[in-house]
Amino acid sequence: MIEAVLRATPLFWPGALLSALAGLLCSRRLGRRLGTHPLAAFLLMLSLGGIATFTLLPDINSHYLDGLRYAESGYASQWHAPRLAELTSVNQDSLNVALFVPLGVAVAHIRPGKGAAWSAVAAAALPFGIEATQYAVPWLLRACDLQDIVDNLLGLALGLFAGHVLGLVARAAASFRRARSGPPRAPRAPRGSLGAAAQPGP
């Protein structure tokens, strides 16, 4: 299944390389702007690049006339909640779910506030924008499917939950290390300062 997905996405490696490069170049600045760790900002950039690569880049191995079948009115409106057996095996549903998990983890690490709220809203709107683009631009050779939206939103929710759990664990571990190290020690006075203070003035 994974090999079939990579064959249908011949621009995967260039897209992944560009996403990683953009993440390396912008992670520190983006992290300061969003109030998050540069690693989380890098994950955010990498996940957005991966999503765009898998969902919006055209299949350059196919003829553009093959995209006409995606322009028909046969929009796939059937959907279902993925079952556990589907999520624990490699298939289209599980891959669509996994695609948005890193994005959810990255968004969960953004500093609480307006930036985090807007980032979560934008992440939730992303699957709808992707499917609308696929429907409006048939030469991308991407089928518009309501099930993809359901899978993507589930992956985003799982990523947000996992990100919050990881944040709680990290804060608890930091508190535990501070408690074991004891209260901070008072700074030591420079050698000779007491003697200098004890000397009477002229």
- Helix-strand pattern: HHHHHHHH
* Average predicted confidence as pLDDT: 82
Strand content bin = under 5%
Largest sheet, in brief, is: none
- The number of E-state strands comes to 0
Return the structural class: mainly alpha
Shape: elongated
- Poorly predicted runs: 194-198
Radius of gyration: 25 Å
- N-C termini distance: 89 Å
How would you characterize the overall build of this protein?
The chain is 66% helix and 0% strand. The chain has eight helices and no strands. α2 (12-34) packs antiparallel against α3 and α6 (114-136) runs antiparallel to α7 (146-181). The chain is elongated. It starts with a helix and ends with a helix. 24% of the residues are buried. Mean pLDDT is 82; it is low at 194-198.
